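Table 4 source record.
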Amino acid sequence: MFFKDSYDVVVVGGGPSGSTAARYAARNGANVLLVEKRQEIGSPVRCGEGVSMEIFKHVDIRPDPSWFVNQVTGARIFGPSGKFILIDAKNAGDEVGAVIERDAFDKYLATEAARDGAEIATKTSVVSLLKDGGEISGVRVRRMGEESDISARLVIGADGFESQVARWAGFNTNLKTRDTTSNLQYRMTNLDLDPRFTDFYIGSAAPGGYVWIFPKSGEVANVGIGLLLSRIKGASEAKDYLDAFIEKDERFRDASIMETVSGGVSVSAPLDKVIADRIMLVGDAARMIDPLTGGGISNGVIAGKVCGEVAAGAVKEGDCSEEYLQRYEKGWRELLEEKLYRDYMAKEKLVTLDDEALDKLIEVMSEVPLENLSTKEILTAIRTKYPELVKEFEDLI
């Protein structure tokens, strides 16, 4: 199918946030084109493939066995000494989640967008924003070596944390090295794991970040590491740290690596502003990745729904001004902003703690009953035993 030269809404980026925004814009009456630069939506995978169950409360998504491969009962967070805390549904609710097949999940979301009326163009790169009298009026795309212009009343940038759309539109998306991680992940098989839990390892094994194990079964898992760029000399160190971790763990003794993926992830606070006249940003492009965990799928999908609904309303009302699009700013921030900022501040503190302090943190959390797990409650518990660890965090309590 060849796309037309004019749409109400053009969504740039076919990841979870882009497909969800396209879906809900189309569902609510907008004429939508979803543009993806890769030849296949969902591939290659550059993701830990973990999601929280929270998305099912906000978005019309049903778990499908093609992508929903393992619902875990909890997460174990290990300190440097090996002691761990268990976070399960009793204290974290829907934050406990599942491990998915990301490529199949992305295709599922794109299929739902198409079913609701969105058109999809793959292997189509957006090379610039079109402007008319200084106002955004569409996008210029390149497909099969040929360029063409597509007019749009509204453009949605869902093109990742390195978003070109955001830069072209004048948003300040600069990142500090302390707000960016270098990540490496292996998909491994022939493991000996407990598939009920996702595991996280903090401390000097992963400077400024953590090692993760996301099991797809007892034998197959994503095993990865994220390191703050400000704490390492080069991106190649991620492999050294991850290999060292694997070498010491008996569960990996007979394991084989089936796939290796790498890339950067932003762990910054969200952008102060994600809208302007006739443009919105969503997902990683808007810095909606959780700064503490590096997870962005669930937040992107939740915000994508709000984005699509507001986009359709703007088109219907004939008002794509920044003033109208404040409905999107208000909507997604009410759902996500407080947790994103709180977790950013928690991340800023955690990266300053040495192994001894991190073990104290794990010790307290394992001893104090936490009925409703949150950053605030965790810090309150820590303050009762090691007040020196939270001196700089009084404003979070």
